[in-house]
Design a protein that fits this description.
globular; 5 strands; 2 domains; 434 Repressor (Amino-terminal Domain); alpha+beta; about 50% helix; about 375 residues; five-stranded mixed β-sheet
Length: about 375
Amino acid sequence: MGKRIADARTRTGMTQAGLAAAIGIDRSALAKIENGTRRVSALELARIAEATRERIEWFVLQVPEAIVSHRNMQDPGAESPVIDRIVETFAWNTEFLLKHDDRLRLESPGPLAKPGTNDEAERTAREARKLMGLGPSEPLLNIVEAVAKIGLFTLSRDLGPDAADAASVLLARGGVAVINGHLLVGRRRLALAHELGHYLFADEYTVDWRIAEKDDDNAWESRLDRFARAVLLPADGLTEAWHTARKDGDLRTTAVKVASKFRVDMSTLSRRLVETGVLGTHDAASVRSVRTTKADIIELNLVTRDELAATSLSLEYQQAVLRLYKQEVISPARATELLYDTLNEDDLPPLPPLPESAIWDFT
């Protein structure tokens, strides 16, 4: 418990003196609590939880084993402690739902072989698309629910411009991913596709500081980027869509149409056009500079959807929370907390009245 208190204090940027003052004890007493030589009272723990913005059970219950094992493999969160804290909490909440809701199923299809080359990254992307039930040329339109089908739950939160793009944890059953909702929609989708790779390849716990900003094609993260682009932009589908759109429009119009069809940003599209051999580097640079305008949306009759807008959650996760609430396993306050305040207590469904005989269950 002392170590967890120290971790929470450090993560919130507080000194021992600052936390001690906030909870009304001496700094030396807090130091003894953290090193395990002094007990902490229930009232002190409640004050520590409030000051560090953690739930009390986070300090007293064991962390899910999957999180422990993956965290021990490296030092996560050094560059983005905000997302580090959120992904742990989301993993904890998901484990809670899995434990208490027998209708919730979250199973991984099993790890895929890690790609050692870009060609293997392309192949594993095709495998991943098949697992999600997608055709070889079909756009991946609802990525949140597609990845949920194969056991990866998603939380999008606005973490600001300085936080990491994404983070993910492989759990004993399934996995979770947190996406920085501050990003534009194309970048959010790419970040989730990247985390899908970490999940399917049973990679260690990871915080991805910036997705698609690596130039070393031999690096593991770059192969994951290649995998992510191939998941969102299958080679056959992209080639067909590009040539069809190009017949009726100039380069800019073609880029706008194809980016909208596959719901990607122009940077991702331009890199993928080069990877698939559809365009050379000069034309691809022109594509990268294109920006879709409101006029484009109207004139080209484009369908827009703000996927992974903050705050949003996988549908199955939300349904599990509501089931537990209706069964009175959790309180209204706990339900809204598990839903990350996407609903307030007034939005929760009415509870069914209990029969008079239910009193004997309580007795």
